[in-house]
Amino acid sequence: MGSSPFTVIFQSSSSLNAFASEGGARGRLFLDQKEAMTRRAEVERDLLSPNTRPMVVPKKVNRKRSSSITGRGFGVNAPTSGEVSTLLRLDTLKSEGVCYVPNVLSKTAASDLLECVRGELRRAYKAVEEDPERSVARFNVPADIMDPLRGYMLMPLRDEAAVEAGDNSGAMIRALRECLTAGTVLGDLFGSDLCGGGDAEFYDLTALRTEAGATRQPIHFDTPFQEVPGLFCAFIAMEDVEYSMGSTVFLPGTHIESSDRLAFDSGSSVRDSMLGSKRSAHTALKAGDAVVFDMRILHAGTANLLVSEGGGQRLLFILTFRNTAAKEPLGHKPNLRPDYRNRGITLGDMREELGGTEPFKGKARDGKSFGDGL
Ligand SMILES: O=C(O)CCC(=O)C(=O)O
Known about the structure:
This protein is an alpha+beta fold. The chain has one domain (5-354): Jelly Rolls (Sandwich), CATH 2.60.120.620. The chain is 37% helix and 14% strand. It contains 13 helices and ten strands. Residues 1-21 and 65-74 have low confidence and may be disordered. The structure holds 2-oxoglutaric acid. 2-oxoglutaric acid binds at residues 208, 210, 217, 222, 246, 248, 299, 301.
């Protein structure tokens, strides 16, 4: 990533420290909170570490339960291997709350998307450098409390480089086609009954960024427990991600009201004894692989180590869809550019666009242009 005055201001915790001590009250509060969270996260790391393993691709399908998840059996025809794999993944998502899904993007699409995300990041930094007020629309956070080492960049449906070049199938469109079209690995998960089928609502389109030196997060959930799962998210790797660059650690089975989840929610010493004995799995994603999870599950981002220890910029592409059958508060606002939010754009709408020759160039069902979301 090329540096910009914005990255110079925010390039390290110590510069944020200096910024905070120059009178930014919100910045100081942010730092205090961050320090407390890091201390807690380190306690949790030590509790979890004896029982943490790299996440693996699921191997066994419970056919009876899978049929009930998708609302259909295998029918008279033998299932294709693609169908079996989808059922296995749905089964795993339902029982564990998380599933390693390899090859959701081809290697070429993954590396093109990485270049595209880096380009978008440069443009977003420049925009905020010119006008800090733009930070919320670009990064979902005001400039004065932006974490230099960890954050989200909100992405456009058509990347800016492709728009400028008049290219109707730029890197972002190609990636969305590979991820969302019916019959693709990820498309069949988002399009399943578990997530609300074609009516699943477009909810996050973002890139997660951590830099060398980013500390570990405390264990958390993104959406509180409710019977019907409301949000399903895919973290997609655009290059191989070494553990030293950070990973996501998940506590399988904690998306439902299990004894482990109840222990966590009690918030007392019971929580720590649960963490001390709980089996957890951390991601070790290769380029094009994804981890898909029910956002009720307990999880955390692990530390991105110093460069001298193998740390380095980690960028993940993120897609989330909402099952509109979940009616309770989600506690997680859409991680979307402002003008893409609350428009009821569905997976079905996106598939229709992606099946055409000029995706997202025209108007959505609400009569407004898809546009760049800003
Ligand atoms: O860094 C990660 O892998 C996890 C990020 C995360 O869980 C969050 O930002 O809520």
